[in-house]
Structure formats: structure tokens, C-alpha cells
Predict the 3D structure of the following.
Amino acid sequence: MSEVEVVLSTPLARFAGGETRFRVPSGTFREVIAKVYERHPGLRRGVADSSGAFLPFVSVYLGEDNIRDLGSLDVPVAPRTTVMIMSAVAGG
């Protein structure tokens, strides 16, 4: 099975049972994120609004590419790609 690695920032791990790294099957980004939410249903409320759009403080990268710059959630995610889901951290 072809898989991608998903990496969550530490603040988001609380929505994923503390898990910060795991693998899901590759496919389009839409399919990958659906598998992420299937594995960790609580993560959806931590990263997306009710329409499914990522919250403004959440950044998602396919390798080095920000998903917002790719123009579609239907872009293919090649096997062995790292999908990083990061949240901004406030500090002072």
C-alpha cells in the first residue's frame, strides 16, 4: 500500500490522542485528509470550520507546498510525501 506520512504540530496532537506522526493511504489531498479525519475525527474541529475549510491559523503543507497555494484539494499526493498540519502558536 502506498502511504503518506502525516505530521501534526504539538498543539494539534490533543485532537489526535497525542499522536503527532502517522501514515495514511496516498491519493488526492482530499482523499488523504478524509483518511486523517477518519483516523482522528476530533482533529477536524481543531483545523477546519463547518464547511471544511481550514481555519486561518492552520497551515497545511504537501512537502514544501502550502495547500492554499495549490488552488485545489484534488491535487495528487505522491506516496512517501510528508503532509504537515501546523497551527500558529501565539507567544510574547
